[in-house]
Amino acid sequence: xxxxxxxxxxxxxxxxxxxxxxxxxxxxxxxxxxxxxxxxxxxxxxxxxxxxxxxxxxxxxxxxxxxxxxxxxxxxxxxxxxxxxxxxxxxxxxxxxxxxxxxxxxxxxxxxxxxxxxxxxxxxxxxxxxxxxxxxxxxxxxxxxxxxxxxxxxxxxxxxxxxxxxxxxxxxxxxxxxxxxxxxxxxxxxxxxxxxxxxxxxxxxxxxxxxxxxxxxxxxxxxxxxxxxxxxxxxxxxxxxxxxxxxxxxxxxxxxxxxxxxxxxxxxxxxxxxxxxxxxxxxxxxxxxxxxxxxxxxxxxxxxxxxxxxxxxxxxxxxxxxxxxxxxxxxxxxxxxxxxxxxxxxxxxxxxxxxxxxxxxxxxxxxxxxxxxxxxxxxxxxxxxxxxxxxxxxxxxxxxxxxxxxxxxxxxxxxxxxxxxxxxxxxxxxxxxxxxxxxxxxxxxxxxxxxxxxxxx
Length: 457
Fold this sequence. Notes:
Blueprint: E1 8-17, E2 21-27, H1 28-34, H2 37-40, H3 62-83, H4 99-108, H5 117-124, H6 128-137, H7 142-148, H8 154-162, H9 169-175, H10 181-194, H11 203-209, E3 210-213, E4 216-220, H12 224-242, H13 245-268, H14 284-287, H15 293-297, H16 301-311, H17 317-327, E5 333-336, H18 342-354, H19 359-362, E6 364-371, E7 388-390, E8 396-398, H20 399-402, H21 404-409, E9 413-421, H22 435-442, E10 445-446, E11 449-450
Helix pairs in contact: 3-4, 3-10, 4-8, 4-9, 5-13, 6-8, 10-12, 13-17, 16-17, 18-22
C-alpha cells in the first residue's frame, strides 16, 4: 500500500494556528495520524509543564506544538522541492520522495512526552524519546497501525528519523539540529504564549535561506544575520523563560511531591503502619519500576493533577503540604550559589531542619545551564550538528567562523546554580517560635547569594 503514503485528501484540512496562521493537511495519512488516540493525548500535556504558574498564558500543549513543527517542515520541504530538486542520484539536492517521512517524523517527534515530562522523567527514569519510538514501532498502537499501512518497515524508518539514524542527513536535520523545525516552532510558540517578545525571529526569512547539500541542510550566507537573530532569541528564551527561578522552584516542589509519594509507598511495603491507600493504581507501575507502554499512555497532566488534589487531604503532613504548595502556587525561594557558597550549604540546611522542615523534601540544589550555540565536537557524548552557511560556489563554512556575535556565544555555558528553601525562612516575625533560627538563616543571604554570614563579610 505504498500509494497510501502519498494519497491526497479530496479536500484539504486547514487548522487555525496563532503562530503560523494556518496548518495545512493535504494527505490522508497525516490526518489519520492526528486522529489517533496517542496523538490526541498530547492535547492533555502542556508544552511548558509548570511554566504557566509563572507565565499565565503558557497553557499551550504538545499537540499544538507538534502541529506547528509539521507545518514548518511542510513549508521547508515544499521550498526545497520547488527550488532545489534533485537532478541525478547523489547530487546533494532534495529528493521529493523524502517529503512524507519528513512530515510524519515532524508530526510525531514529541509523541512520547509524559505529564510534566522532564520532572517525571527525572523521578521515574523514563525517556520521552525512547517512548516516542516505542509508540511508533510497537504493534497494537493506533500510530503503528496507521504507519504499517505504508509498509511493515515504515514505522521503523520513521523512528530512525527521530533516533537520528536515518540514512538521509537532510531529513534528520530538518527535524533535529541546532536550527530545526522543532526549535523554530517552540521558540515562536513559547514566546507568543508567555508574552516574551525576545523569543521572536524571522521564520519566513530563515526558511527561504535553507539549502540542501550532501551532508545535510545549510543556509545561504547572505542571510547570516537572520541566523544570528535566531541564535540570540534562543539564548534569551532559555535565560528568561526556561530557566526562570520560580519555574524551577515549582519543579523542585513537584519533584519532592512525587518523590515523597514514592518513598511512602516503598516504606509501606515493609512497614504496615504506613498507609499506602492514597497511591493511585496508575502510578504503582512507576513506583515499582515495572511500567509498560500502556501504563505510560494512561498518564497525562490531568491525571496527575487529580492525584495531587487528593493528596492534599492525606494524613502524611509532608505529602499534604507539598500538594497544597504545588496546587496553590506556593513556590520555594532560592539563593544563587557560587563555589564560595559550598561550605555554608550544610549549615543553612541544618537551620532549615531545626525550623521544622525535612530538608530531603524542602531544599534542593539546582543548576540550569545551556549553550546558545555549540560547535560540532565528534567525540562528544551527544555531538551537535553545527550550523553551516553555504557560499555561492557551493562550499560551506561553519557559522561561528564568520559571525563575531556567534563566536562570542559559542561553547559558553549560560545559566546559574541555586539553592532552594522554604519561603518561611525569610520571615521577620518576632513572635514565632523559630524567629531566632530565621534571623540566623538570613545572615547567610546577601544580594540574592548564599554567602558567608554577614557579620564575617
